[in-house]
Amino acid sequence: MKKLNRVASLFAVAAVAAAASSAALAQSVDNWRAADGTVWKNGTSEYCWRDNFWTPATAAKGCDGEIKPAPKVEEPKPVAPPPPAPAPVPPKPVTPPPAPVSEKVTFAADAFFDFDKSTLKPEAKAKLDDLVSKTKSINLEVIIAVGHTDSVGSDAYNQKLSIRRSEAVKAYLVSKGVEPNRVYTEGKGEKQPVADNKTAEGRAKNRRTEIEVVGTRNK
Fold first, then answer.
1. Is residue 14 in a domain?
2. Is residue 88 part of a domain?
3. Whether this model's pTM surpasses 0.85
4. pLDDT tens across 1-18, in order?
5. Domain count, the chain
6. What is its subcellular localisation (predicted)?
7. In the prediction, which pLDDT does 84 show?
8. Which of 32, 142, 150, 206 is the most exposed place for a label (fewest CB within 10 A)?
């Protein structure tokens, strides 16, 4: 009976050895497999059991350490160069407006006075008002007022009287808005008569202030 048990044990060992041998042949050299070829894993089925010959190159498919094919890297598509920037358009030349052409303008008038007086008469003020209105249409440069007298009296007295007459004209023009620095005054006394001092009519013509307005006007 003992002999039969020993024989049965030998067969059992042989069967186990054969199964182990076939399992060893069935599994690869990477991870341990069961007899049916299933890879052995840990209790949580997260990792595969490795044998002593395990390498990443021989890892069972689906187990950690498996060498996966490198991802295919697509070659970058050629990018068309941006279109060239349009050539800058040169600015059109600006033609300056023609410079204004000016012409010289002069106005003249006489203001007459009573004998031995430097007070403007009403008719003299009317003439000066007309001159002031004309200066508004021009670029005023200067107004020249030159006083004169008749021959009655001394030269020194008449010289001072002629200056007072020219200053009276300036004062009136300034009161009408003319800039003071635009009015120039001068006295000539009795030196430049325009009529005969031997007659009352001639002397009346000599008691005067000559006014000249100088400026420019665009054509």
1. yes
2. no
3. no
4. 444 444 444 444 444 444
5. 2
6. Cell outer membrane
7. 85
8. 142
